[in-house]
Structure formats: structure tokens, C-alpha cells
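[Discussion] Sanity-checking designs against the backbone

I'm trying to build intuition for which residues belong where. Below is a C-alpha cell string of 297 positions. I'd appreciate it if someone posts a full sequence so I can compare it with mine line by line.
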């Protein structure tokens, strides 16, 4: 009888002990994550300035974005920057992973040196690159002129600022792609390669028909991480260019920061945050769906 009562009361007692730990954790999640988003949405439907009244304006801030050429231009620059900052590291990262998967002398040291850019903070890297991009004192123009090439304007010209920023992103995050793909290559079976060697397949044919299809799920993971990270890039662009020259490198992140904290239009800036979050969420869901389809093949 006592054993039956203990078994019946055991789950209830366990449930009560469970809620003691679950409730504080849920409250922390609500306060730290959910409340800022609710408050951001609340501000986005008000004409929220730093001082003065904050009248309710409904979806006026969202409708304003449809006709705001500066916002539309920032969206296009964000998409272009993201696409280039994903494609270049993916191509170079896969190539580096294939190279580092081979046995050669000094491979461990080469891997260590290759991943060093990923270890530094983006702000520190941006400051170093800013000095290197200087038109007169920068080392990059010195290297160009020393081999007979004309100096470049780098981030000081609207036509070259986005490619230059993409170069910085590629330099920093190609090692991340390399590590992800290299882990995939290390887990591949050796039987297909042995059979391909017996059939006389070349190195390119083995990469094209064996390595690439087998590591494609790992490449998709790297692509998802890089796209989300590139869409959110702020510190690199802000430190190097502040969105300039003019608005040539002004992405959505830079624009909403300027709108909210330079022009003090918190309502319109909050509306940009909501729209940008929805954009990132939709792209992430699409990429995850594509990755699931790739896993099912």
C-alpha cells in the first residue's frame, strides 16, 4: 500500500520540483528575448522620438519604407554584399579544405596560420584593414605600385567600396567554411576513391563526382551560417566606412542604426528592425528547407 502511494505521488512531487527550476528560466527568456521584441514592435507602430509625444501611427512607418529610396537602396546593397560575402568564402573554403585534406609537410602549421583571421575580433580586424586601405600611407597601394600597378581607391570610392568590404569578409570567414567542409571530407569513406583510382579517374573527376556530392550537406551548413552572419554584418562596415562614401556602403544595419541613434527616429528604426528580422527569418527557413531536401537525397 505504501509503495503504491509512493509511486503515485512520485511523479507529482517530481513535477513540483521541476516547475521550481522551469519557471525562473522561462521568466528569464521572456524578459531577455521576448520583451525586447514586443517593445520593438510596439515602437514600430508609433511615431517614437527621443523627446516629445509618441502618437500611434499604425503601419505608417512600414508604408514609409515602400517609398523610401534610401531604404530600398540599403536593401539592395545588403543583398549584394551578402551574396558576394557568401559565394567567395564558400568557393575558397571548399578549395582550401580539399588542399588541407591532403598529406603534405607542414600541414598542421599551415592550418593554424589559415584559421588565425577567424580568431580576431571584427573591430580589431577592421581597424587594421582601415590603415592598410589608406590611399597614401596604406601598405596595399605600396604593394600595387611596387609591381607596376596603379594604386586603388579601395573604400574611398563608391564603385570599389562594396568589393573591398567583401574582400575583408572573405579573408576573415573563409577559414570557418574550410573547417566545416574539412570535417565533412575527413568523415568520407575511402572505398569510392579507391574504386575511382582503379578506374583511372583524375583528381578533378574524383572531386566533381565523389567529394563534392558527399560534402554538399556540410557546404549547405556553411552557407546557412555565412548568409545569416553576412546579413547581420555591422561592425566591419561601420568601423571601416561608416556607410560611406556617401551611402555607397550603407546596408540595412547601418541605416537603421543611423535612423534610430543618429536621427533619433526610434519608431521608423524599429520598423526597419522588424522588416529586416522577417527577411532574415524567411531566408533562413528557405536555406534550412533546401538543406533538408539535400539530406533526403
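Best answer:
Here's mine. Compare freely.
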Amino acid at each position: 500500500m505504501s509503495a503504491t502511494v509512493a509511486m503515485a505521488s512520485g511523479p507529482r512531487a517530481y513535477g513540483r520540483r521541476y516547475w521550481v527550476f522551469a519557471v525562473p528560466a522561462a521568466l528569464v527568456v521572456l524578459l531577455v528575448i521576448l520583451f525586447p521584441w514586443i517593445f520593438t514592435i510596439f515602437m514600430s507602430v508609433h511615431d517614437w522620438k527621443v523627446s516629445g509625444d509618441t502618437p500611434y501611427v499604425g503601419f505608417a512607418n512600414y508604408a514609409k519604407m515602400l517609398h523610401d529610396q534610401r531604404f530600398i537602396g540599403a536593401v539592395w546593397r545588403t543583398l549584394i554584399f551578402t551574396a558576394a560575402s557568401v559565394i567567395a568564402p564558400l568557393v575558397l573554403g571548399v578549395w582550401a579544405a580539399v588542399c588541407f585534406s591532403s598529406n603534405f609537410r607542414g600541414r598542421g602549421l599551415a592550418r593554424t596560420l589559415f584559421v588565425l583571421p577567424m580568431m580576431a575580433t571584427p573591430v580589431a580586424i577592421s581597424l587594421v584593414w582601415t590603415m592598410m586601405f589608406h590611399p597614401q600611407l596604406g601598405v596595399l597601394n605600396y604593394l600595387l605600385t611596387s609591381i607596376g600597378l596603379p594604386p586603388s581607391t579601395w573604400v574611398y570610392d563608391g564603385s570599389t567600396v562594396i568589393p573591398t568590404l567583401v574582400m575583408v569578409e572573405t579573408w576573415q570567414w573563409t577559414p570557418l567554411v574550410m573547417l566545416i567542409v574539412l570535417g565533412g571530407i575527413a568523415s568520407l569513406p575511402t572505398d569510392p576513391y579507391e574504386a575511382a583510382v582503379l578506374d583511372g579517374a583524375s583528381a578533378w573527376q574524383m572531386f566533381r563526382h565523389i567529394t563534392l556530392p558527399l560534402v554538399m550537406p556540410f557546404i549547405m551548413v556553411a552557407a546557412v551560417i555565412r548568409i545569416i552572419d553576412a546579413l547581420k554584418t555591422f561592425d566591419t562596415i561601420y568601423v571601416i566606412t561608416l556607410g560611406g562614401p556617401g551611402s555607397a556602403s550603407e546596408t540595412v544595419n547601418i541605416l537603421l542604426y543611423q535612423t534610430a541613434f543618429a536621427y533619433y527616429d526610434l519608431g521608423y528604426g524599429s520598423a526597419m528592425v522588424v522588416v529586416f528580422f522577417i527577411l532574415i527569418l524567411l531566408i533562413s527557413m528557405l536555406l534550412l528547407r533546401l538543406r533538408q531536401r539535400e539530406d533526403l537525397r
